Amino acid sequence: MVLSVDIGGFDIKRKLYSNEFGLSVFEVVEKETGKTFILRLADFSNKSMDFKKAQWNQLQGEYRTVISDYSHLPHIEQLAKVDEDHLFILLESEEGLTLLEKGSLESDEVKQLIAAVRHLHEKGIIHGSISAENIWITSNGRVILYGAGEAKILEGKPRLGVVSDIRQLIKIIRMHSDISESAGEMLAIENPTTVEELEGLLANANQKIAIRDDNRLATFFERKSIGQKQEADNKRKKKLSAQQGETRKSRNRQIILGGVVGLVLLFLVVYFLI
Prior knowledge:
By secondary structure, the chain is of the alpha+beta class. The chain has helices spanning 49-66, 99-102, 107-122, 150-154, 162-176, 181-190, 195-273, and strands at 10-18, 23-30, 36-43, 76-83, 86-92, 96-98, 135-138, 143-145. It is rod-shaped, with a radius of gyration of 38 Å. The model has no long low-confidence stretch (mean pLDDT 85).
């Protein structure tokens, strides 16, 4: 779907993505101020329009009521329609990239993402579609999670719950963070069901990694120390061997010199006797 109508003073900067459920997402710029926003456009032309549109409006109204001034969830600036079949929400944003574009999350960004999901759950909201397309990373490293609750309406998933969000989070963490393969497998096996359980497992995994790294570092320094000791011993042995060699050479020179002197004396004795 391409947005071909003017949305009250906004220019379409680029289309971020669209899906088969009638959602298209755009990055737009306000003409007057140059400020960037995210516009999420829902197409209800192939659905039970009145029912679905009412659900959409109710969802956005509830979100707007309970989510305000939270760093990792966007504030709704405007809720409106293009026409009878297409509704949109205009959300705060700033320059950045989707995780799909950026590709990876730093450890602090993972914490921000988890914090966003925790805040939603505390407010009684299930996200339902925690994906790389819905995760926005600003140019200064702030994570913003978009799309809360939309899957329940657009994808027809009324039974989405906390566990589904946690599983989606784990998938994102395993695919897009620097977590070790063994830690990622542990998350899948342990199957946490709350944000708190997930955070506990991640903290435990990080602690094990830290211990392992400390052990590796200690082993490295131990081996380095042993190597340095062996090197010092080898140097001492070489020095001692060199000293012994010089001593032997000195003794040999003394023996030779003594032999020469003895021969000279003998020659002189014989000479004078004759």
